[in-house]
Amino acid sequence: MRNTFVYFLSLILGCYTLANFYVIWRSWVMLPGIGVWRWLIALVIIFLAMAYPLSRIAEYHRMAWFSSVSVWLGVFWIAAILYFFLIFLGLHFFDALVWIFAKDACADRWFACRPQVWTGVVVFVAGLLAYGAWNASHPRVVRMEWAFPRLPVAATSLKVVALSDLHCGVIIGRERVQKIVTMINAEKPDVILLAGDVIDGDLAPVQERKIGEVLQQLHATYGVYAVTGNHEFFGGVQPSVDYLEAHGIRVLRDEVVPVGNAFFLVGREDISVVRYKPEGRASLSNLLGRTDRSLPIFVMDHQPVALDEAEQAGADAQLSGHTHDGQFWPVNYIPKSLFKLSYGYKKFGPLNAYVSCGVGTWGPPVRIGNHPEIVVFTLKPAK
Q1: Is the domain of 117 the same as that of 240?
Q2: Spatial distance between the Cα atoms of 194 and 314, rounded to a whole number of angstroms
């Protein structure tokens, strides 16, 4: 498992490096005759490509001002380089078509205007990222009604407010978390479910910004529950769990609890635990072995990798996150190819499954092609 992760990370870093050098090369080709400015543009791109790792080094050496600036430049550049690469690649193919098929005069006119095209691409990508940043900071509320067999009549209209992938930390700071908490509390929830990756990884920025004080404002009649996500494991799972529980959030780690005599909530340890414990996590059938089946079974599992297991175990519902629905186009095609359900609602036999695209962001604070969301489930008995 560790080797697989190392290979995957190496592949990503390799692609990122090649994309940056490709954009430098295409910029060089498209901007002839500007002398030293081409070198300056190349150096700026190299700095932006290295900004995120430089921010980590600066943070280690307590250079707070440089770390703060470079981390933001770095995460935005991760999104920017994707769009620069795709657009310049498309223009590269267009250049080839012009060179092969166009008449000399037409080709000359096209190649002469490439500096203006380069400038237009820069303006377009900047505008796209500005929209993506605005979109990422404005969550929407998605409302659904779920009909459960065995739901007590007294629990009709019980309101479950659910979200995933908050990613509290350097990028999703106190102000953003406060906005989300205010939106959640405005729904007057009966229970709040946080489906993993509440903390982005490193707990230190969360503690420094006192984000726990904001999370502690979450209020629901029957409590606030969370499960671990892969990012809690990245930063040290036990300190993250302790921090959340110290601020009023019950973290379920392969546990089953009753919620308001309405349903049983099963909180599964994230599948990432297999990297740290050879025995992995408990099977769902073992967790449900002694559970009273007179009430509905609601599973919360950060990564949507075990939907078949939930269906076979007789669960009525599962809430997951993790995928971000790709966060920005066209990355969304990757989780679609990896998961049985990468976003939204789908029924698998008796199982009602919902995979949220998340309310926060990881890496670039940008969403293009989807919207951050808070999901409100209103429960009712099945007819």
Answers
A1: no
A2: 22
- Residue that the structure tokens 């078509």 belong to: 97
Q: Are residues 79 and 56 in the same domain?
A: yes
Residue 49 pLDDT level (bands cut at 50, 70, 90): very high
Amino acid 57: pLDDT: 75
The pair of structure tokens assigned to 358 is 């998340």
User: Which residue is associated with the tokens 């999370």?
Assistant: 215
3-class SS at 318?
strand
Q: What is the mean pLDDT of the chain?
A: 91
**∠ CA 13-15-17, rounded to 5°:** 70
Q: In this structure, are residues 177 and 217 in contact, taking their beta carbons and an 8 Å threshold?
A: no
- Omega before 330 within 30 of 0, i.e. cis: yes
Q: Which of 95 and 298 is assigned the larger pLDDT?
A: 298
CA distance between the termini of the chain: 45
* pLDDT beyond 60 at 1: no
Write down the pTM of the prediction: 0.89
Q: What is the arrangement of strands in the sheet containing 255-259, beginning at the earlier edge strand?
A: 255-259, 263-267, 297-300, 317-320, 351-355, 344-348
Q: Does residue 316 share a domain with residue 176?
A: yes
